[in-house]
Amino acid sequence: MTTFQPQTAAAVPVPLQLLVNGEQHDLQIDPRTSLLDALREHCGQTDAKKGCDHGQCGACTVLVDGVRINSCLALAVMHDDQEITTASGLASDGGLHPIQQAFVERDALQCGYCTPGQVCSAVGLERELARGEPCVTSPLGADAVEGPVVEFDDDELRERLSGNLCRCGAYPNILDAVRDGLTRSATGSRT
Questions:
Q1: CA angle 65-69-70, nearest 5°?
Q2: CB 46 within 8 A of CB 23
Q3: Sign of the CA dihedral 149, 153, 159, 162?
Q4: Which long-range contacts (CB under 8 A, 24 or more apart) does 129-138 make?
Q5: Closest CA relative to residue 118, chosen from 83, 155, 163
Q6: Tens-level pLDDT at each residue, the chain (191 residues)
Q7: Closest CA to 31 of 47, 61, 11, 7
Q8: Neighbouring C-beta atoms of residue 42, cutoff 10 Å
Q9: Kind of pairing, strands 14-20 and 23-29?
Q10: How many angstroms separate the CA atoms of 12 and 29, rounded?
C-alpha cells in the first residue's frame, strides 16, 4: 500500500520594495509572506504585533498609504512601493503624534500589546473623518442626512475602533485617549 505524499512547489522569492516609516527596504521574499511577517522578520518593525493572525484582533494594524489595514491579512507583494506606517513611524519633529501623546497621558494601556494597533487604527480613523467618510452609526434611509456628516461621538468612535481588541479591558481610557487625540489633531495642538 502506498501512502499519499503531497507535492509542494517551492516558492520562488520575488523582489519587493517596501517603504516603511520613510525607509526603503529592498527584499527578496516568498510571495506568500504576509505584510505583517515581512514587517517583523525582514524590516525589523516589531511594533506591529502578531495577535490572532486571522484579522480578528487588530494588533497588527498599520497604515498603507494612510488607510488602516490588518497587516496579517495582506500579502507583502500587494504593497510594493506603497507607503507603510507603523505606530513607531507616527512620531515626527521629535514629538509624539497627538494620538500617541493622548494614549500616554490617558494611561490608555495596560500590558501594551494591542497599543500600536490601537494607535494606528485611531490615526486611520482620524484620516477617515478628515476625508468626510459617512458616520457608521447614523441611521440609513429616507430620513438620513445627505452628504458626509461625521461626528466623532462615543458611539461612532466605539464602532470604528471595534476591530481592535484589548484583552486587558482598557477601553474607557482608550476611548478617552482617541477623543483627546482627535481634538488635538483638529486644533493642531501637540499638548
A1: 145
A2: no
A3: positive
A4: 129/182, 136/160
A5: 163
A6: 677 777 666 789 999 999 999 999 999 999 999 999 999 999 999 999 999 999 999 999 999 999 999 999 999 999 999 999 999 999 988 899 999 999 999 999 999 999 999 999 999 999 998 888 877 777 654 455 555 445 678 998 999 999 999 999 999 999 999 999 999 888 776 65
A7: 11
A8: 17
A9: antiparallel
A10: 8
The candidate with the shortest Cα–Cα distance to 125, out of 92, 146, 153, is 153
> Which phi and psi (to 5°) does residue 11 adopt?
-75, 135
14-20: strand order across its sheet: 23-29, 14-20, 83-85, 61-64, 67-70
